[in-house]
Design a protein that fits this description.
- The protein has 103 residues and is mainly alpha-helical.
- It has two domains: 1-51, Pemi-like Protein 1, Chain: D (Ribbon); 59-102.
- 49% of the residues lie in helices and 12% in strands.
- It contains four helices and two strands; from the N terminus they run αββααα.
- The protein has helices spanning 11-17, 42-45, 59-77, 83-102, and strands at residues 25-30, 33-38.
- It has a two-stranded antiparallel sheet.
- Strand 1 and strand 2 (33-38) form a beta hairpin.
Length: 103
């Protein structure tokens, strides 16, 4: 590996994967190992980043997320908003920040 982090892919590996100059490859970590594959499109890139599991989210956190989503939808639904709707949106986000900080 070079100082810039560049790696030369051996010719046999390039032929096996069908990689040509100018093709894009995707690097990922799977089962603690670094792997790469040819990038064919958006669907091939899906799942390359591990997402945190939030199945154990506290009920208060879920309530704030739902309230923030509903309020943001109400503010954006008619295409224009007044200052009070903006203040309400900022207030719910501020409350959510405080709750998330102390959970």
């Amino acid at each position: 590996m070079t100082a810039k982090g560049q790696v030369t892919i051996p010719v046999t590996v390039r032929f096996a994967l069908g990689i040509a100059p100018g093709d894009e490859v995707v690097f990922a970590i799977e089962d603690g190992r670094g792997v790469f594959r040819r990038a064919g499109g958006v669907l091939d890139r899906a799942g390359t980043l591990a997402l945190p599991s939030r199945a154990d989210a506290p009920p208060l956190e879920l309530a704030f997320l739902i309230a923030a989503t509903i309020l943001a939808g109400l503010v954006a639904s008619n295409g224009n908003a007044n200052w009070i709707e903006g203040v309400q949106l900022l207030a719910i986000y501020a409350m959510a920040c405080v709750v998330f900080w102390y959970l």
